[in-house]
From TrEMBL:
It holds the Pfam family A_deaminase. This is Adenosine deaminase-like protein isoform X1. Monomer. It catalyses: N(6)-methyl-AMP + H2O + H(+) = IMP + methylamine. It comes from Scomber scombrus (Atlantic mackerel). Residues 13-338 form the Adenosine deaminase domain.
Amino acid sequence: MDHEADVFYRELPKVELHAHLNGSVSFQTIEKLLKRKPHLNIEHSMTAIGKGQRRTLDECFQVFKVIHQLVDTEEDILMVAIDVIKEFAADGVKYLELRSTPRAEKKTGLTKKGYIETVIKAIQQCKNEGVDIDVRFLVAIDRRNGTEVAMETVELAEEFMLSSHGVVVGLDLSGDPTVGHGRDLLPALQRAKNCGLKLSLHLSEVQSQLEETDLLLNLPPDRIGHGTFMHPEVGGSQSVVDKVIKNNIPLELCLTSNVKGQTVLNYSKHHFKYWYQLGHPSVICTDDKGVFCTDLSQEYQLAASTFGLSREAVWTLSQQAIDCIFAPEAVKQQLRQKWTELHSQLFK
Ligand SMILES: CNc1ncnc2c1ncn2[C@@H]1O[C@H](COP(=O)(O)O)[C@@H](O)[C@H]1O
Ligand SMILES: [Zn+2]
C-alpha cells in the first residue's frame, strides 16, 4: 500500500461496488502465489503499480495477464477470493460486489463453471466464518472475447443467479476498452437484462467511445463503470449526460485507477467533481486495489482531500452508495440500519 488512510476513513462503513477479483490481489497474497509457482519467474514489480508510478492503460492490461498466470486453479481462486474479501472487511467495507471473468484453463482442468462455483464457495466460507461483510458476485464479460463468449457467459450467470441464493446478482462488461465493440455484445447484454441480471458496464473509460456509450445507454445499464469521457468538457456530449441523468444511472468512480492508468491527468481533474457537483449518484470504488496499491479508505480520503469534502459529506457519500447496490431492498434496509448504528461511534 502506498499510504495508510486515517482512522476516520478506515472506520467509516463503506460499500464497494467496483472491484475486479484478480486486480484486487494484495502484495501478501501475490507472495503466496509466487511461492506456489516459482517456475513462472514472476516478480512483484510485474503485478502492481506502486506509489508515483503510472502506466498506460495498455500496460495495465499486461499486468492482468501476469496475474492470470498466477491464478489458474480452483485452489488459487479460492485463496485469492477469501483473502480479498477479508481485506475489504478489514478496511471497513460492509457490503462488497466482487466481479470476475470466468476463465477455463486447459492445463489445470479449470472450467468456467468451476471458476464461478469456487468464487461462490469463498463467499460462503467467509460468511460461515462470520466475517462482517455482505458479499455478492457479478459475472464479468471480457469484451475482447466477442459475441459468442458473451452469450455463454450470460447463460452461466443466469444459471448461477437462479441457484446461488442471491449471491450472483449481475453482470459486468469490462476488459480492454480499445478492443471490440459494444454493438456485438448488445444481444447478450439485452438477454441478461431480460432475465433479471443487473448490469454494470464499463463505459467511456477511454476517449472516442461516445457512439458505443450512446448505444449501450439505451439498454439502459443499472450502473456505469468510470464514464470518464461522457461529459462535454472532455469530448463527450450533453445528450449522453442527459441520458445518464434521466435514467438516474449511478457511476462507479475509481480515482487512483484512472490517474495511474493515465486516462485522467491528476486527482483534481477527475470527473468525480463534475458528477458530484451535479448531485448525480456517484460511488467511490477501487477498481483494482492490488494492481493500483490502494484501498477503499484511501480512495475516500483522496476524494475528500482533493475536493474539500467535510467528514459529514464523506459520510453521506458512503451512505448514499447503499442506494446503488444490486442486492434487494431488504439488504439496503439492513445496511442503512448498520450505518445509523455506526454514525454515533464515528462522530462522538
Ligand atoms: C483498469 N481498468 C479496467 N478497465 C477494464 N477492465 C478492467 C480494468 N481493470 C480490470 N479489468 C478487467 O478485470 C480483469 C481482471 O480481473 P478478473 O480476472 O476478471 O477477476 C481484467 O482482465 C479486465 O478484464
Ligand atoms: Zn473496472
